Amino acid sequence: MARIPLSKSQLRKEKENLVSFRRYLPALDLKRQQLMGERVRAERGIGEAERKAAAAASEAGAALPMLADERIDVAGLVTIRQVRLGTQNVAGVKLPVVEAIEVERAPYGRMVRPHWVDALVQHLEAAIRLSVEVEVARQRVDALRKAVATVTQRVNLFDKVLIPETERNIRHILVYLGDAERAAVVGAKIAKRARQARSASEAQP
Asked: Phi first, then psi: what are they for 3, rounded to 5°?
C-alpha cells in the first residue's frame, strides 16, 4: 500500500472517498444482480430456441419421410439473405436482438421436383430462422457472462479492497493526528512550566 500524507486535508479526502465508495457499491451490486438475472433468462432462451429447432427438424422428418431419397437434390433451396440485428440495453450492456431475418428461396420447377418440396421449403425456412435465433441467444449469453464477470470484479474491488483500505487510512491518520495533538499539548505544558520556572528564577533576588 502506498504511503499517504498524514494530514487533515488527506483525512478529509479519504472520508470523501469512503462516502463515494459506499454510495457507489450498492448501485454496482444491483447492476450485477440485474445482469445475472438477464443471463439466466438468456440461457433459458437458448434452451427454448434449441428445443424449437429440434422439434422443427423432427416434424420435417416425420412429415416428409421421402427426404431419405438421396436421388432428389434439396441442397440450396433456402438460404439466408440478410439478418438484421438491433441492440437492447440491459443495465448499461448492449445485447443483440433479432429484428429481421430475410431468407431467399431458390427457384425450382414444380413440374421437375416432387410436390412435397414446397412443404420442405417451409420447414427449411423455419429451421433457418430458429438457427439464427439460437446463435443470437448464444451471443447474448456470452456478452452477459463477460459483463457479469467485469461487474463482479468491480464489486469485489470496492467491497474487498478500496473500502477496507480507505477505512484503514482514516484510522491511521486519526491515530497519527491524535498522537500529534497529544504531543503538542504535552509540549505546550512542558514549555509553559519551563517559562514559569525561568520567570520564578529571574524574580528571585
From this structure: -70, 145
The grid coordinates of residue 176 equal: 497519527
* pLDDT string in tens for the chain (205-residue length): 568 888 899 999 999 999 999 999 999 999 999 999 999 988 888 888 888 878 877 776 665 555 555 555 556 667 788 889 999 998 889 999 989 988 877 766 554 555 666 777 777 788 888 888 889 989 999 999 999 999 999 999 999 999 999 999 999 999 998 888 888 777 777 877 767 666 666 666 5
Domain contains 60: yes
Q: Is residue 80 part of a domain?
A: yes
Cβ-based burial of 144 (10 A; exposed 0-12, middle 13-18, buried ≥19)? buried
Asked if residue 107 is part of any domain, the answer here is yes
3-state secondary structure of 79: strand
What does the alpha-carbon distance between residue 150 and residue 35 come to, in Å, rounded to a whole number?
A: 11
Task: Specify the pTM.
Answer: 0.72
Secondary structure E strands in the chain: 78-90, 93-105
Cell 436482438 identifies what position?
97
Contact 32, 151 (CB under 8 A): yes
